[in-house]
Amino acid sequence: MKKIKKLFNIFWIQLYLELKLQIRYVNSAISSLVLYAGAFLVVILFTNPAQLGQAYGTKQGVLFTIVGFLFWSIGIASLGGCSNGVETDERTGLLESETQSVFPLWVLYFIQTLAENLFVWIYLLIIGIVASFFSMFTVAELLKAILLTFAFSLISNLGMFGIGMIFASGSIRFKRMGQWATILQALLLMLSNVYFPVYNAFQEVIPYVGGIEIVRQIFLGHGVSLSKLMLLIVVNVIWFLFGILIFNYCIKKERKNGSFDAF
């Protein structure tokens, strides 16, 4: 129980620090909001939401596109948060001292990612509300989409965090990996079902793909498919555990053979 209490304390401290950063560096927060808004406009303007709606037999193509965008946005935030965090800590010399924590290092980055994601949700909520005034869906439908996405992204973000841990491992072994993570984020946008339905079974290995389909089916009134939910859980648990195993191995090897100072 003491360890659980400590974890909650770490989370609240991390959330407080993140809030202070958001307030202190308002320009950075605005820039982040603009970046997410820009990505959303690219998805809406250069894709065909109406065609997506036709594929599902609904007129809510824009709303379905927003569901995909929400999953992708929060997913890449989880992926980038932990990979960039490790790279930054290694560059500033904090990583070695953090390995002395009573908690596994991946736990600290997981908590940090959770705190950062809460502010990403605020950006996405603002973007969604603005979009609702120019589309055929209501604010109530938007809030329903956000709540459902938030619920199922708690699962899909495990897998995205795991992938982020793999890139973080690359940062430890090969140093700078941030540009490769950015490339992957763009590829995920193009290859997943953000703005079109699933057309290939191999897409299901992307952590958030199953979550997008489940939320869209709920809006269609079909409920939650148990088989799809189980597949979503299995895929994300595998990515999560695999990422942690790789990360722990790289940390152990770096302690033995490498140097945290050589970045």
From TrEMBL:
Naturally occurring in which organism (per UniProt): Lactobacillus melliventris
Record localization: Membrane
InterPro entries named in the record: ABC2_TM (IPR013525), Nod_factor_ABC_transporter (IPR051784)
Keyword Transmembrane helix: yes
Protein name (record): ABC-2 type transporter transmembrane domain-containing protein
Xref: Pfam families: ABC2_membrane
ABC-2 type transporter transmembrane domain boundaries: 44-218
Keywords annotated in UniProt: Membrane, Transmembrane, Transmembrane helix
Transmembrane segments: 25-46, 61-82, 118-139, 145-168, 180-198, 229-251
Recorded topology in the membrane: Multi-pass membrane protein
Top-level taxonomic group: Bacteria
